[in-house]
């Protein structure tokens, strides 16, 4: 039979292998740049996380521990009562009679549970009766440092347990309010040495106690001296030799290099907004405060204040004192930040030091 061109009578061998597919070119994976936030096409409910956190916090509550340090008679207990508008500085067996705390160096802590609009707070106030009242005040800060470190140690022991509590009780001191006597002069060597030592382990907030005893000019001059030192001579806290004028910039440099680093610290500002807010606060430190736990009638309203022969000093009036700034700092704006810095900075430093000591041969 005739055959077609290109054809053959021999049977063709068919391969069992599948035909080779054409090779695909490898395309590198690239991520196209896009905006930081992804736009949603409908409601998802992510914002409900805030409501969940709020409900959980209201159920469990939170803890806040504050310490007040200063000489007797500077109004520490009254200031704490004014901050929380309740009798939280003393425990008494009878409601009408307060327990008198003896003037000793032994620290005393009092815990209360206060509630406002459904939010519960376990408040612990640590008082230091008799601090700086002795003739020889050498090492009078040692009991305070020991107490603060003991609270860190207690938290550390609970944290390193194999089977630990779901929520570790927090007794660490979150803030220390140091009361400076309203002398109108510069800080005393005791004040400088205390803040220099304590600012390394706790958040220290200095205040000028009983600021109503100073005029506005004296108050402004005193605050300037506290921050930068006087323009003339300044007694050295460590030796009797005075510092001359050219040593005053050195004092400012020491403050910047954390010789005395009071709260809010510049190194812990998170973003420009926090830095701007904290700069305004740092300009006002130390706060000139007046405490009062009694109400008086002023223009038909009941206000907290101190009654004198020439009028009533309103505690919550910014024109009279800077107590509202102190309250906003400790409670309304920086309470959580105080706790965060205590946990992430001061407690972390103590934990690292203790673990290094335990690992040494």
Automatic annotation (TrEMBL):
GO terms for molecular function: GTP binding. The keyword Nucleotide-binding applies. Transmembrane segments: none annotated. Residues 60-357 form the Septin-type G domain. It is found in: Chromosome, Centromere, Kinetochore; Cleavage furrow; Midbody. Keywords: Cell cycle, Cell division, Centromere, Coiled coil, GTP-binding, Kinetochore, Nucleotide-binding. GO terms for biological process: cell division. InterPro entries: G_SEPTIN_dom (IPR030379), P-loop_NTPase (IPR027417), Septin (IPR016491). Residues 1-24 are annotated as: Disordered. Its main location: nucleus. GO terms for cellular component: cleavage furrow; cytoskeleton; kinetochore; midbody. PANTHER family: SEPTIN. Belongs to the TRAFAC class TrmE-Era-EngA-EngB-Septin-like GTPase superfamily. Septin GTPase family. This is Septin-7. It comes from Sapayoa aenigma. The gene is Sept12.
């Amino acid at each position: 039979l005739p055959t077609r061109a290109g054809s053959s009578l021999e049977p063709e061998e068919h391969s069992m292998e599948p035909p080779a597919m054409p090779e695909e070119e490898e395309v590198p994976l690239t991520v196209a740049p896009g905006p930081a936030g992804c736009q949603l096409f409908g409601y998802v409910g992510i914002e409900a996380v805030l409501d969940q956190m709020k409900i959980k916090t209201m159920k469990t509550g939170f803890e806040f521990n504050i310490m007040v340090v200063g000489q007797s008679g500077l109004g520490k207990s009254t200031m704490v009562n004014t901050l929380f508008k309740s009798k939280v500085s003393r425990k008494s067996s009878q409601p009408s009679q307060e327990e008198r705390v003896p003037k000793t160096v032994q620290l005393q802590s009092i815990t209360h549970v206060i509630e406002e609009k459904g939010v519960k707070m376990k408040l612990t106030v640590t008082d230091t009766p008799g601090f700086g009242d002795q003739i020889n005040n050498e090492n009078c800060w040692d009991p305070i440092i020991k107490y603060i470190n003991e609270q860190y140690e207690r938290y550390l022991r609970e944290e390193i347990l194999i089977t630990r509590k779901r929520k570790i009780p927090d007794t660490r001191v979150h803030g220390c309010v140091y009361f400076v006597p309203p002398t109108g002069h510069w800080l005393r060597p005791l004040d400088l040495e205390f803040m220099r030592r304590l600012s390394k382990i706790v958040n220290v907030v200095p205040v000028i106690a009983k600021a109503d005893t100073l005029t506005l000019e004296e108050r402004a001059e005193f605050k300037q001296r506290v921050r930068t030192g006087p323009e003339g001579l300044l007694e050295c806290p460590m030796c009797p030799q005075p510092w001359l004028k050219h040593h005053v910039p050195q004092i400012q440099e020491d403050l910047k290099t954390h010789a005395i680093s009071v709260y809010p610290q510049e190194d812990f500002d998170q973003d420009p907004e926090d830095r701007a807010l904290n700069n305004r606060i740092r300009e006002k430190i130390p706060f000139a405060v007046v405490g009062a736990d009694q109400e008086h009638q002023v223009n038909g309203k009941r206000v907290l204040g101190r009654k004198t022969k020439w009028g009533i000093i309103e505690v919550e009036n910014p024109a009279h004192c800077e107590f509202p700034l102190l309250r906003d700092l400790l409670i309304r704006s920086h309470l959580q930040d105080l706790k965060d810095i205590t946990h992430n900075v001061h407690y972390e430093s103590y934990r690292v030091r203790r673990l290094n000591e335990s690992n040494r041969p």
